[in-house]
Structure formats: structure tokens, C-alpha cells
Design goal:
With 461 residues, this protein is an alpha/beta fold. 46% of the residues lie in helices and 12% in strands. Strands 2-1-3-4-5 form a five-stranded parallel sheet, with helices on both faces. The protein has a five-stranded parallel sheet with strand order 7-8-11-6-12. It has a two-stranded antiparallel sheet with strand order 9-10. Helix 17 crosses helix 18 and helix 18 packs across helix 19. It is elongated and about 100 Å long.
């Protein structure tokens, strides 16, 4: 719903004009003088100001200048009396969108309002695109030759053109938002906003306001009317990350907008409409959350119309070299290191690691290695899994000589695997196969220990 401020010092005219616009489906605020109008503009998200030219204390021209100082792009239509055309033209030179001479036809007024709002929406969209251009990802930028990823790409191509809700699952760091952006960018909604909300980042009360907006005075600190993410995403896509963290009470309100396409701002009573495609993501098993009562079953089925699952990086080792080289190229540009390279031994070594943090962890590792490596060459010691960015500890380095026990020419990945498997077996035997104890002794997490046990087929004897 578009929001208009009408400014006029004649109360009767103000009432009639406001009712006309409300009947046309606009949300209308009114002000009887320029000072009150400026106060409304400072505290309300508006799409247009409609103001009389002749008003006491603060005239239309002075108000126009004040409005432009607050929001230069906000369109202003001036209403003038017959014989004030020169003033109206002067107002347009100062930034007014257009002027209408009283008396005017209602159709003429509505046509001008729609034109001004469309123009403002385009300006806002261009600004949003400029702000997001570095963060936006296209389908082509998704990297993966792994069979599971190729199947995922095929699903995205089928899913994207529809308006159905999509649920993306996968561990943290696997790139769920990247998939959501790919769906949006390859959909008919690609020209409209892609808005992202992390449901785990805000408490319930603030998340509700973030999603649905709030009216002025709705709660302590609500000093202005603010549109929520649903209104901002109108026509486009709303990405709800970590949807499994959303409180049950808020899930009910989300279900309502999915069913009815309407909602109310916090503290408001009027119905707002939003045409939004929902793409949700979670690293939880929502089916399990439903069974334990932590997630609404009806909302689960509403969100899970189409399901895409992102495999963890450890299940697609053939993609690790591709991703690593991509990140090396990225950081070579960012760090102004045109000669930055990664050795083939390092690429092989990277495929032996578990990557519990998935692609995000790999990217962070390559970034750190790009900064700390010697002679712009990333070697295996630069990406050691201790994630400390350093070399092998001096005590180990001085006391251990691989030449004493390793046949010459043994590939580094084979050597590392042999050492790692032996260390795992020794730690498990000493801990009497108590995994928590063994993991602590090795300085790794229990889940990483379990992954490595599967990797080397280690079972309790």
C-alpha cells in the first residue's frame, strides 16, 4: 500500500481529499501546515507529498525546500490556484514533480499521483540495486561440478520461474543464501527487490517489527512509522534465513500472510498487502522440529512446497579445488596480489580436511592464507587445520623428520592420511573408545572425530 501525505490549511478540503485517496487504496496522512508536514516526513515512510501552494506561516515553496532537505527524491505535487502558474513552474525548478491547478478532475489527480509514485519506486529500486550490486549473485557464479551440485543446478532452473515457496536445507556455511539469490535472479521477479532477514539474529519482538513494520508509538522507541521487510520486498522475494529459530507465536503470523497475502504492522489495525515470494532456509531438521512441537506443521507444509538440499562440502571433495582457486582469484584482486597462486599439493591437502564450516570456512582459510603466505604462494602449511595461520609448532618441527620413516616420493596427502589415521586410532584406544575423551585429547570436536572415523573406517574392536 502506497503512503501519501496531504498538506492543506483548509480543514474541509483536507478531509475531502484524504477520503478520495483512501477510496483509491492509498494510506493517507494529513497535516494542516508546513511544520506538521515536515514532522510527518521525518517520522514516516512516504511515497508522495501532495501540498497546497498558498498556506500561512510556511508556504508551499518553503515547505518544498524543507521536504527536499529531508528526502531529495521524495516526489511532491503542488496544488495551485488559477493564476499561480508562474509560482508552480518555479516550484518544479526547485524539484517539485508536477503541479495541478484547482479545480482539477479526480482522474487527473490520480493519474499524476500514480505517475509520481512509479517514478519514485524506480529511483528507490535503482538506489537499492547500486547498494547491493557487489552482494548480488547470479546462477552462473555458483561453482560445482559435483554430481549433487549439478542436480541442484537443474532443480534451481525448474524452481526459479515459479512463484512457489522454497525451503533450502543444509549445514551452516553451505551457501543457502547464494541459492536463494540464484532462484530470485532467475525468476520473473528479478527486477524487484530481494530482501534477506536472519530470523536467528533478533529477539521475537524485534523480528516481528522487522518483518511486518510498526506504527509510530507501537512500542517504546517506535518514534516513527516504519515499513517492514514484507512491504519492502513487495513484488520480489523475501529470504527468511534460519527459519527454524522463529518463535511459535510469530510463525502463526507468518502463516497468515502466506495464506491471505495480508498482514498488520505492529501497533496497527489496517490491513496491508504484499505480493512476496518466500524462500526460507534452515540448518535444522524441520520435520523433527514439527514432531517436537517447536515448529508449526501447517507452516512447514506451506514453506516446503519445493525443497532444495545443499550437501556439505565434505561430500563434494571434487569441488574443493575449484572453490579454492576461485577464492584465490578473488583475494588476489582484493589484496592487490596479482601473482598469488596456490600449489597443487595444497589443493590436494584441502580435499583431506573435514570443513565443518563448509564453504564459509574454506573461504576464510584461503583469505587468511592469502595474507600470510610467503612469496604469494599458498602451501599446505599455510592452510593447516589448526586454523591458527601459523606453521607446525617448533617443538614438533624440530623433533620430527619424515625422511626417517617415510619412503621417498610419498605423496603428501597419503602421508597426512597415514599420520592422521594412526593418531586417531591411538587416541581412541587410550580413551577406551570414549569419543568425547578422544576428541578432547586430539584437540578436535566430537563431530569431526566421528567424520574422520567414518573416513578411515575406524570402529570399536
Amino acid at each position: 500500500m502506497h503512503t501519501i501525505l496531504v498538506v492543506d490549511d483548509e480543514p474541509n478540503y483536507l478531509i475531502v481529499l484524504a477520503e478520495l485517496l483512501r477510496d483509491e487504496g492509498f494510506e493517507v496522512f494529513t497535516a494542516e501546515n508546513g511544520e506538521k508536514a515536515l514532522e510527518v516526513v521525518r517520522t514516516t515512510d512516504l511515497d508522495l507529498v501532495l501540498t497546497d501552494m498558498q498556506m500561512p506561516v510556511m508556504g508551499g515553496m518553503e515547505l518544498l525546500r524543507g521536504l527536499k532537505s529531508i528526502n531529495h527524491d521524495l516526489p511532491v505535487i503542488m496544488l495551485t490556484a488559477f493564476g499561480e502558474v508562474e509560482k508552480a513552474v518555479a516550484a518544479m525548478r526547485e524539484g517539485a514533480f508536477n503541479y495541478l491547478t484547482k479545480p482539477f478532475k479526480n482522474d487527473e489527480l490520480i493519474a499524476n499521483i500514480n505517475k509520481a509514485i512509479d517514478h519514485y519506486s524506480l529511483l528507490c529500486e535503482n538506489t537499492r540495486l547500486r547498494n547491493e550490486i557487489r552482494e548480488r549473485h547470479s546462477f552462473a557464479e555458483m561453482i560445482g561440478k559435483n554430481k549433487q551440485m549439478q542436480q541442484l543446478f537443474s532443480l534451481i532452473e525448474k524452481v526459479a520461474p515459479t512463484s512457489a515457496s522454497v525451503l533450502i536445507t543444509g549445514e551452516s556455511g553451505t551457501g543457502k543464501e547464494l541459492v536463494a539469490r540464484a532462484i530470485h535472479n532467475n525468476s520473473p521477479r528479478f527486477k524487484d527487490p530481494f530482501i534477506s532477514v536472519n530470523c536467528a539474529a533478533l529477539p521475537e519482538s524485534l523480528l516481528e517489527s522487522e518483518l511486518f513494520g510498526h506504527e509510530k508509538g507501537a512500542f517504546t522507541g517506535a518514534i516513527a512509522l516504519r515499513k517492514g521487510r514484507f512491504e519492502l520486498a513487495d513484488g520480489g522475494t523475501l529470504f527468511l534465513d534460519e527459519i527454524g529459530e522463529m518463535a511459535i507465536s510469530l510463525q502463526a503470523k507468518l502463516l497468515r500472510i502466506l495464506q491471505e497475502k495480508t498482514f498488520q504492522r505492529v501497533g496497527g489495525s489496517s490491513e496491508q498487502k504484499a505480493d512476496v515470494r518466500i524462500v526460507a532456509a534452515t540448518n535444522k531438521d524441520l520435520r523433527e522440529e514439527v514432531e517436537t512441537g517447536r515448529f508449526r506443521e501447517d507452516l512447514y507444509y506451506r514453506l516446503n512446497v519445493l525443497h532444495l538440499h545443499l550437501p556439505p562440502l565434505r561430500e563434494r571433495p571434487d569441488d574443493i579445488p575449484l572453490l579454492a582457486e576461485h577464492f584465490v582469484s578473488k583475494f588476489a584482486r582484493q589484496l592487490n596480489k596479482p601473482g598469488l597462486k596456490i600449489s597443487s599439493a595444497t589443493l590436494r591437502f584441502l580435499t583431506t580436511l573435514a570443513w565443518e564450516g563448509n564453504i564459509r570456512e574454506l573461504e576464510n582459510t584461503i583469505e587468511r592464507a592469502s595474507i600470510l603466505c610467503i612469496n604469494d604462494a599458498i602451501e599446505p602449511e599455510d592452510v593447516l587445520p589448526d586454523r591458527g595461520g601459523g606453521r607446525v609448532p617448533p617443538a614438533v618441527n624440530q623433533s620430527f623428520n619424515p625422511d626417517d620413516i617415510v619412503p621417498p616420493g610419498t605423496p603428501l596427502p597419503d602421508l597426512l592420511d597415514a599420520i592422521e589415521e594412526k593418531a586417531l586410532r591411538n587416541a581412541l584406544v587410550k580413551a577406551e573408545y570414549v569419543q568425547t575423551k578422544a576428541a578432547k585429547a586430539l584437540g578436535i570436536t566430537k563431530s569431526l572425530l566421528q567424520y574422520k572415523m567414518r573416513k578411515f573406517s575406524i570402529k570399536k574392536s
